[in-house]
């Protein structure tokens, strides 16, 4: 039996993405890729059933045997036992305290022991580093900036979720300044106009002084946060991903410059290349173990 084909699943706040991954090459098998919207406020029974439909569709339509399932979940979550601890955020609250691993195994008719789960930020970093030869990657911190702030650390083959989104930062917590909502809020404050997200912000006048001011401020904040994170983990490199990536040309150089001025040496900053496929690759790699 081929043991190198594993199913990677990424549970997002409003969707499920899944695909088969060939762990010999680190490539996603494109014909297996699925992305479906999920109502995160639905009943536990319906959420599990709808996840199951997507996963079963991939497994049943594949002519290749699937050696395991790895799943990327947002926290808080008991990943070892498969129990959801998500509450008070309006997402998947019906799953709180339930053993997701057992419920999914039952729904899929699949062995519980063959389903593995890991934090989504940790899966992102694992996926970005998988089969890539990056400078300093044996001790790397990763951050994803999107609707929230994800932080992870990879060292000696082990990836951990660092949960730094809630650390005190400026007048609040880190996620208040390093997420989509900060851009939306700051743009409104400076211009009086509303934008929905980073993509919409990039469609505005990039020559506008307000646009430049926002990315200047963001670059300083990001450099400050990364400096603390690097020092905390003695990291040798950084990987940045998430919804912020389309805006990289407006912050990447400045952030690297400000970080250099704080550290007095240059640390490699790698921009994520796999996008939303990274958690799938990372999840698949843990599904194999």
UniProtKB/TrEMBL annotation:
Pfam families: ROK (PF00480). InterPro entries: ATPase_NBD (IPR043129), ROK (IPR000600). Coiled coil: none annotated. PANTHER family: BIFUNCTIONAL UDP-N-ACETYLGLUCOSAMINE 2-EPIMERASE_N-ACETYLMANNOSAMINE KINASE, ROK (REPRESSOR, ORF, KINASE) FAMILY. Belongs to the ROK (NagC/XylR) family. This is ROK family protein. The lineage of its organism: Bacteria, Pseudomonadati, Bacteroidota, Sphingobacteriia, Sphingobacteriales.
């Amino acid at each position: 039996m081929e043991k190198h084909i594993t199913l990677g699943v990424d549970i997002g706040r409003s969707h499920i993405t899944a695909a088969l991954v060939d762990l010999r090459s680190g490539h996603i098998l494109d014909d297996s890729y699925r992305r479906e919207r999920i109502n995160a406020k639905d009943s536990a029974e319906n959420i599990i059933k709808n996840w199951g439909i997507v996963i079963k569709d991939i497994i049943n339509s594949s002519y290749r045997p699937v050696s395991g399932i790895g799943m990327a979940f947002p926290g808080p979550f008991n990943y070892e036992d498969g129990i959801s601890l998500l509450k008070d955020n309006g997402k998947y609250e019906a799953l709180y305290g339930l053993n997701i691993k057992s419920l999914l195994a039952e729904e899929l008719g699949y062995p519980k022991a063959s389903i593995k789960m890991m934090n989504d930020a940790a899966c992102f970093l694992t996926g970005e580093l998988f089969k890539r030869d990056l400078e300093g990657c044996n001790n790397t911190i990763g951050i994803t900036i999107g609707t929230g702030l994800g932080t992870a650390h990879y060292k000696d083959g082990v990836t951990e979720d660092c949960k730094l989104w809630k650390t005190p930062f400026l007048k609040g917590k880190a996620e208040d300044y390093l997420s989509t909502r900060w851009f939306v809020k700051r743009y409104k404050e400076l211009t009086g106009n509303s934008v929905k997200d980073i993509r919409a912000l990039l469609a505005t006048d990039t020559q506008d002084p307000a646009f430049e001011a926002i990315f200047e401020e963001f670059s300083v904040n990001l450099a400050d946060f990364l400096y603390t994170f690097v020092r905390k983990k003695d990291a040798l490199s950084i990987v940045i991903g998430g919804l912020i990536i389309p805006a990289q040309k407006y912050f990447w150089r400045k952030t690297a410059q400000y970080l250099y001025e704080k550290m007095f040496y240059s640390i490699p900053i790698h921009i994520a290349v796999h996008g939303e496929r990274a958690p799938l690759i990372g999840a698949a790699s843990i599904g194999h173990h």
